[in-house]
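wait is this the right file?? whatever heres the structure
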């Protein structure tokens, strides 16, 4: 399998890596992790991985075919350029640009721009009759300096953050302060590994953020909320983003009018911006998981966001769900969210 590397978002230390693996597993794309450094994942996989990550991922930034990885020193970098199979990607007459991104502290005594010039010069020396074009190059080479290494390759794709920004809570026709950011919602959807056509359920749908992200990657979506105003608002938001839904209704999580789903992604109320309707968050989560487990088959998953104080692992254990992974998300002094993936085993 060819070698690739991905530059991931620095918004969270573990969620971007977990999201990549979940997408590849959902789409049944073979992969082998080679190295994980801050914001960079080097892996062997197939070309189909690039398309899948480009269309689904919230936290992947740049996707490259790897040419080499060496120590981040000018000498090592120029030597590596000399022996890299650049001719496979660049022919005589082609124009190219080199972009370098440094992650973390400055190392090696060079700036990103300085290194772009060094690398560009070495490429011009190696592949004759090529030219640099910074505004509309035919090929873009991309390198990152991370944890003392320079990883370099041909840029295949870049994921634009703009569509996620366009779906931020304030941009939706129905706004509520409890609404989740589109990027986090997309990542949570990916963590349950759905494929197009799967039925995704959100029993605490609020403004519909998770349903919208699920619908946009081709899932069929069903949502419930105990508050009629939220259900109406969700309907408006889904319609605005052209997401069709299989069902959206007022229902209490203790009594959901649904018997089967392929996956569940949700964000129960914490009693701050979203009402718990007089119940304790832990009690609601317990009731939700007890009901939810009945609508899933063996091997199917739930991803939920909850305050770390809810002790999800313990509740999951009580209702017979297996804990798969957790990611902590600091919100403010009195709220750290735990994004948890549970599986019916
Ligand atoms: C944190 S909000 C969900 C926010 C949503 N993820 C979004 O991005 O808009 C939790 C939702 O759960 C609903 N809720 C509270 N108690 C419920 C219950 N017992 N059954 C179903 N929904 C409930 C609230 O009305 C609220 O809309």
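ok assuming it is, sequence goes like this
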């Amino acid at each position: 399998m060819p070698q690739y590397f991905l530059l991931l978002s620095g918004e969270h230390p573990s969620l971007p890596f977990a999201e990549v693996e979940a997408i590849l597993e959902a789409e049944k794309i073979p992969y082998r992790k080679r190295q994980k450094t801050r914001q960079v994942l080097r892996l062997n996989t197939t070309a189909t991985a690039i398309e899948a990550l480009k269309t689904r991922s919230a936290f992947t930034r740049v996707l490259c075919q790897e040419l080499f990885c060496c120590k981040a020193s000018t000498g090592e970098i120029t030597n590596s350029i000399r022996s890299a199979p650049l001719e496979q990607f660049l022919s005589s007459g082609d124009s190219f640009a080199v972009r370098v991104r440094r992650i973390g502290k400055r190392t090696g005594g060079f700036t990103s721009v300085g290194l772009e010039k060094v690398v560009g010069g070495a490429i011009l020396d190696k592949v004759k009759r090529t030219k640099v074009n910074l505004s509309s190059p035919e090929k873009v080479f991309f390198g990152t300096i991370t944890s003392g290494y320079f990883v370099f390759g041909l840029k295949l794709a870049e994921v634009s953050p703009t569509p996620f920004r366009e779906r931020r809570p304030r941009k939706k026709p129905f706004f509520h302060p409890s609404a989740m950011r589109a990027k986090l919602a997309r990542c949570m959807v990916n963590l349950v590994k759905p494929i197009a056509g799967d039925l995704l359920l959100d029993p605490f749908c609020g403004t519909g953020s998770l349903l919208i992200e699920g619908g946009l990657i081709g899932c069929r979506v069903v949502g419930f909320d105990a508050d009629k105003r939220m259900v109406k608002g969700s309907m408006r938001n889904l319609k605005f983003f052209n997401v069709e839904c299989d069902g959206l209704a007022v229902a209490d999580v203790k009594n959901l009018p649904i018997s089967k789903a392929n996956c569940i992604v949700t964000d129960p109320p914490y009693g701050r911006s979203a009402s718990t309707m007089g119940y304790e968050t832990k009690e609601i989560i317990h009731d939700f998981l007890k009901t939810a487990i009945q609508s899933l088959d063996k091997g199917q998953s739930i991803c939920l966001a909850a305050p770390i104080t809810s002790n999800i692992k313990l509740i999951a254990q009580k209702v017979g769900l297996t804990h798969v992974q957790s990611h902590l998300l600091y919100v403010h002094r009195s709220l750290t969210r735990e994004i948890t993936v549970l599986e019916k085993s």
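The longest strand covers residues 60-71. so i think its the right one actually
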